[in-house]
Design a protein that fits this description.
The chain contains 15 helices and 30 strands. It is of the alpha+beta class and 667 residues long. The two termini are 27 Å apart.
Length: 667
């Protein structure tokens, strides 16, 4: 029976929300991670949902029913997270990837709450390459499942925490920092991270991976082989029958596992009452999937090369993820690394164990919660710090002065340590411009992939007679968990917009691929809502407090007296349920501001980047042609990472380090 909330102790809970399997773990009072079984007694739950009329079945029973009812089953929803055009319709109800994920999380919570009582807070893992949109949807899935607070952590970081804090290293004293390469090949995604750690800190140096590479792709090759062999002696194609392919998918998963421990296995195809068995050996399987292994090898080598690290700088290779069990993967890693792999952690449970450790770290730093951990464990966890990096580059869309086309202008590069912020001055496009419209974007998950538009931020009712190239200062922030916040200031009037990204409601119509025009389908677009307290300088968290401290110490610019003030708006946080704000027209003008007829409204709203030092327009590479000629530029920019509101060679801001970990308050 659930405990009374006033007396209930909060348990550190971590959830590995996987593409093919998911599991939940918690920390014992002594700080040991334990995986909790679901209602059927299984430590891992298949990430599959079966819709049986009014009943929703999750896990092994759903997998069993998928054979006879393949059209009413949803699986691998994680691969579609963030895709606005992906949904499933059952009995008149629309389910998106976030909704499927919420049902899986609820299944895990039901089993755990039988032993722990009501669970209100959990840490959910995400791939390092997940975008801000995908991270936010994962948070919302946890909230929809009944959690009151959801934190997230990158899967390779969770694995590293599990490695550092378990396996006899809980109170170990390390003579020097150790560097480990975390190689995480799961069912649907491939994650890489180079992690440096000691007894009190786990720090990610760089990360990489592929969101579209995992054990499912190896399964697909076996499926193609089996179907190809079948049609050689038959006139019918098993790929045209859903029930046949669902039976084959289950068979192939077992064959793949068998080939990890045996040199050969038998593969059975059942179609139209006929049964055909084919023998496949490990060597043939490796030939069929050699290009997939090569992709993991190239991504691994490329990540180390970009960061300038060789294998001599890697102390060990930590292997996790269910698909990493395949001998072809381990042989490849041993060949390119020249070292013995660390396979001590459970490929299926290490990620959820690491998430539980992170939940304990957050709980130990929060005096408001009554922790189930004992005092010595809580004190130890409170000393440990973890730092991740940005998985993607972050910036805004700008108007290219040379081509007059819009393009992304990335302010924060990928693999920048978190938390971080970047300040850049942008200029208005025409005289007497009344509105600046910022479109926040992230780079694609892989090289060459199209950027992802996260949301919008705008400053309305700019002062009259504002000259062309009037400065608008934009500060974009990544917080500790890789989520995005934006501040924009009109330096002429002093008007501010402090923002947090909001998402589309579930009922909104999915946007069409490639549709990025901000003036079409306005009610259905995700937006940034201006937020903040009545005092615009009041920080909403520890990171913003550090940022405000930096801004106060920076050299102030000359500003004209404030002519207008932006209205107070309700602040929002990533953990709260919300609906998207709709764009409002100015009551004074009755419509869009009048500007030069030579440039459309959409073009004028999108600013151009200016040099923070001299105010000139930056070139296509993001540099100032005039300031590059200064002899002191190279000397000033070497090794600089802090931002200055004036110096264009010092853009990056990181909050001052503190001996105390920031408090994490429930949202």
């Amino acid at each position: 029976m659930p405990l009374n909330r006033s007396k209930q102790r909060v348990h550190p809970v971590g959830i590995d929300l996987g593409t093919t399997y998911s599991c939940l773990s918690h920390l014992t009072p002594e700080g040991q991670p334990v995986t909790l079984p679901n209602a059927e007694g299984e430590l891992t739950t298949p990430s599959i949902v079966f819709f049986d009329g009014d009943e929703v079945v999750v896990g092994t029973d759903a997998l069993r029913n998928s054979i006879s009812n393949p059209e009413r089953v949803v699986q691998h929803a994680k691969r579609f997270m963030g895709d606005p055009n992906k949904c499933w319709i059952f009995d008149g109800h629309v389910y998106r990837p976030k909704d499927i994920s919420a049902l899986i999380i609820r299944k895990l919570l039901d089993g755990a709450e039988e032993r722990l009582g009501r669970i209100r807070h959990a840490v959910v893992t995400v791939p390092a390459q997940f975008s801000d949109v995908q991270r936010q949807l994962t948070v919302e899935a946890g909230l929809d499942a009944g959690l009151e607070r959801v934190d997230i952590i990158n899967e390779p970081v969770a694995t590293a925490l599990c490695h550092v804090l378990s396996e006899g290293m809980w109170f170990a004293e390390l003579a020097s920092d150790q560097t480990v390469l975390v190689f995480d090949l799961g069912g649907g995604t491939f994650d890489l991270s180079l992690v440096k750690y000691n007894k009190d800190e786990v720090k990610v140096i760089t990360s990489g991976g592929d969101l579209r590479l995992g054990g499912l792709d190896w399964n697909k090759r076996l499926e193609e082989f089996a179907c190809g062999e079948y049609i050689k002696t038959s006139t019918s194609d098993p790929r045209l029958d859903l029930e046949t392919m669902q039976i084959l998918a289950i068979e192939i998963e077992q064959v793949k596992r068998s080939l990890s421990v045996r040199p050969k296995a038998s593969l059975l195809v059942q179609h139209e009452g006929r049964r055909k068995s084919f023998l496949i050996d490990r060597d043939r399987f490796e030939v069929l999937t050699s290009d997939l292994v090569k992709r993991t090898e190239d991504i691994t080598k490329g990540m180390l090369k970009i960061h300038g690290k060789g294998w001599a700088h890697v102390d060990s290779v930590l292997v996790t993820g269910g698909a990493s069990r395949m001998p072809m993967i381990r042989k490849m890693l041993q060949r390119i690394s020249g070292t013995t792999l660390n396979t001590t952690l459970s490929p299926d449970q290490s990620i959820s164990h690491g998430a539980a450790f992170y939940a304990g770290m957050l709980l130990s730093g929060n005096a408001l919660d009554k922790s189930s951990l004992d005092k010595s464990t809580s004190a130890r966890l409170q000393k440990i710090r973890q730092q991740s990096v940005t998985g993607r580059a972050l910036g805004i869309l700008i108007r290219d002065p040379q081509t007059d086309q819009r393009r992304p202008h990335h302010l924060i590069k990928a693999n920048t340590p978190l938390p971080c912020a970047y300040r850049q001055t942008f200029g208005t496009v025409v005289e007497n411009q009344k509105r600046v419209h910022l479109h926040i974007v992230e780079s694609g998950a892989t090289k060459g992939e199209e950027f992802v538009e996260l949301g919008e931020c705008q400053i309305d009712n700019l002062p009259d007679d504002l000259p062309k190239r009037s400065p608008i200062e934009v500060t974009i922030q990544y917080d500790e968990q890789g989520r995005v916040h934006v501040n924009a200031v009109d330096l002429t009037s002093g008007m501010k917009a402090r923002t947090t990204i909001l998402r589309e409601s579930d009922e909104s119509t999915p946007s069409q691929p490639g549709s990025t025009d901000p003036e079409t389908n306005l009610p259905d677009r995700s937006q940034l809502v201006n937020g903040g307290s009545k005092d615009p300088e009041t920080p909403s968290n520890a990171f913003e407090a550090d940022l405000l401290k930096i801004e106060a110490e920076a050299t102030p610019r000359e500003r004209t007296p404030v002519k207008q003030k932006s209205p107070d708006r309700t602040p929002s946080t990533p953990s709260a349920k919300r609906t998207p704000a709709k764009r409002k027209r100015s009551a004074k003008t009755g419509g869009p501001p009048k500007i030069s007829k030579a440039i459309s409204l959409e073009e004028a709203e999108r600013p151009v980047p200016l040099c923070n030092r001299c105010g000139n327009v930056l070139n296509k590479s993001g540099a100032c042609s005039d300031c590059e000629k200064l002899p002191s530029r190279k000397k000033q920019s070497k090794g600089k990472v802090q931002v200055s509101p004036i110096d264009p060679t010092e853009h990056m801001t990181k909050p001052p380090t503190s001996s105390k970990r920031p408090r994490h308050k429930p949202r």
